[in-house]
Amino acid sequence: QVQLKESGPGLVKPSQTLVLTCTISGTSITSNYYYWSWFRQSPGKGLEGREWIGYIGYVGNTYYSTSLERRTSISRDTSKNQFTLQLNSVTPEDTAVYYCASKQLPYFVERPDTSPYGMNYWGKGTLVTVSS
């Protein structure tokens, strides 16, 4: 059973960089055909409002939401079985619960679907507030 756990600061000041880490257990981050994603959900929104931020694939390839790609970077540490989200120049509009998630496909896909309904595993989420 794959388990995911987010960690990072709960409060970030405007213009700073948000850094969150997702720790994986139950499988390796390099296991075949796994895609590791970050999502966020603003207060009051349901699953349909969970916004995809980006993912890193099992071979290390990355893909970002077009609306956030200029401020986003996702990397991984295979020795720690973790992947990390960096979101630069945050504003109060970036306040949300941030989730890491994963899905495993039957084969390599260059651009897998990014719908939250297609994810197999989720972390519990961590609230990040952007405020001075």
What does this structure look like?
Strand 5 (51-57) and strand 6 (62-64) form a beta hairpin. This protein is mostly beta strands and 132 residues long. The protein contains no helices and 11 strands. It is 0% helix and 46% strand. The strands form 2 sheets. Strands 2, 4, 5, 6, 9, 10 and 11 form a 7-stranded mixed β-sheet that branches. It has strands at residues 3-7, 11-12, 18-25, 34-41, 51-57, 62-64, 72-77, 82-87, 96-104, 121-122, 126-130. The radius of gyration is 14 Å and the shape is globular.
Order of helices and strands: EEEEEEEEEEE
What's the multimeric state? single chain
**Largest sheet at a glance?**
7 strands, mixed
**What is the structural class?**
mainly beta
- Could you estimate the helical fraction of the residues in percent? under 10%
Give the terminus-to-terminus CA distance. 39 Å
Strand content: over 45%
Poorly predicted regions are none
Question: Helical stretch count?
Answer: 0
Shape: globular
Counting DSSP E segments of at least 2 residues, the number of strands comes to 11
Gyration radius, to the nearest Å?
14 Å
User: Can you give the mean pLDDT?
Assistant: 95
